[in-house]
Specification:
about 190 residues, mainly beta, six-stranded mixed sheet
């Protein structure tokens, strides 16, 4: 394990993506990435942990055992639904997001895929609290598969798990039914 102290500052109108400062493991090897046992908490950060950019070769990683809190709160007034900000953890391809605690994010605790940029993602065993959406998953035509199982989601006033096309919400809460409309999503055992 190593100490990661990454503070990204706002520049040229862009908001930072992650702020971490605790003992943890962050691995980047080629195009693979992962974050394990990290604490990310900063209201200035627009987003938390991201394993994204599948469109330019980014894929493969494990995001496990992290605590992500208070993401996007200071940029909340600039957000529109799904504008790309306010996510605790965002993953796109060949990635496992498991056993994380995510709370108080401005838009969603976990984003799975963006548009067609989704392939072979598993989200399981996460605890997600007090974010408008617990999990948003891409259901755009051409998006790949995602398995969303065994997550505990509370305080998600707009839905525990919802399907989205880019920024547009396309489903009700999939924990309550309707997942059969999206054959690439496997949703079960979430509460």
């Amino acid at each position: 394990d190593s100490i990661v102290n990454l503070v990204m500052r706002r520049s040229a109108g862009c908001w930072p993506t992650i702020v971490m400062s605790v003992p943890c493991s962050v691995v980047t090897t080629g195009r693979r990435a992962g974050a394990t046992s990290c604490l990310a908490r900063n209201a200035d950060a627009a987003n938390g942990i991201a394993v994204t950019n599948f469109d330019v070769g980014g894929h493969g990683g494990i995001v496990r055992g992290n605590i992500v809190r208070n993401i996007g709160q200071r940029v909340l007034s600039t957000l529109t639904d799904g504008s790309g900000n306010g996510f605790g953890i965002s993953v796109e391809a060949d990635t496992i997001a498991s056993d994380n605690t995510i709370e108080n994010c401005a838009y969603a605790g976990l984003r799975i895929g963006f548009g067609p940029y989704l392939r072979n993602v598993t989200a399981s065993g996460n605890i997600i609290r007090t974010s408008p959406f617990g999990i948003v998953a891409s259901v755009v035509r051409g998006a790949g598969r995602a398995t969303i199982t065994g997550n505990t989601i509370s305080g998600a006033a707009r839905g525990a798990i919802v399907g989205v096309e880019w920024h547009k919400v396309m489903s009700g809460d999939l924990t309550q039914g309707g997942v059969e409309k999206f054959p690439a999503l496997r949703v079960s055992g979430n509460k």
